Amino acid sequence: MNDYEYPLNMTGGHTRTQLLALMHQRLDDARFDHCVRVEQTSRELAAQYGVDVDQAGLAGLLHDYAKQVAPADFERVIKVQGLGTELLQYNRGVWHGMVGVWFLQAETGVSDPAVLQAIRRHTTGDPEMTKLDMVVFLADFIEPARELDVEKKARHVAKKSLTAACLVELQSTLSFLVSKGARIHPLTLATYNALVARKTK
What is the Cα 168 distance to its own chain's centre? Predict the structure, then answer.
């Protein structure tokens, strides 16, 4: 287990050990281990691309905090918090980022705006993604246990370009959703178009 610590003003006053204990209450072992790998990958990408390493690591660690929240609980929060009825058309694949930050804040007190934004955006992307957002978005896709050819390709591309690697991920995600006849969140399409424009500038 890594021995680094995060500033308490970023963590709601919790040590990393305390955050890990809270995560264990929410996640099964496989998902928990994935989060720890994403934390490390986020830190590595952040160091490479000049992003705050602690913000990236914390967002990577907590990105799937709400991944296994019951769908009914997500639906209740969407309705009670007035997050928009259009969100109800999606599922936990979208909700655990966009709505999951509500559970994270309520249960841990983590309030760093940049960390929360990166977590919120990691499921759909956002056309205004910051480098921190992109680091966490990509780290989730290329952490060491990811072994699909497209994940390996993104890992390789990430050595030279954060934007290009995120585009590899988005192309894969869009192709998968289309092949399944699944609904695509408009932010994901907008993110793809925005990153294509960035890459060509």
Answer: 16
Which pTM does this prediction carry? 0.95
Please give the Cα distance from 14 to 8 (Å, whole number).
Answer: 6
Total domains in the fold of the chain:
1
Q: What is the per-residue pLDDT across 111-141, written as a single tens digit (0 to 9) for each?
A: 999 999 999 999 999 999 999 999 999 999 9
CATH of the domain at 27: 1.10.3210.10
In a domain, 118, yes or no: yes
Two tokens, residue 105:
């804040």
What is the C-alpha separation between 43 and 58, in angstroms, rounded?
A: 9
3-state secondary structure of 125: coil
The pLDDT of residue 54 is: 98
DSSP states along 140-162: HHHSTT--SHHHHHHHHHTTT-H
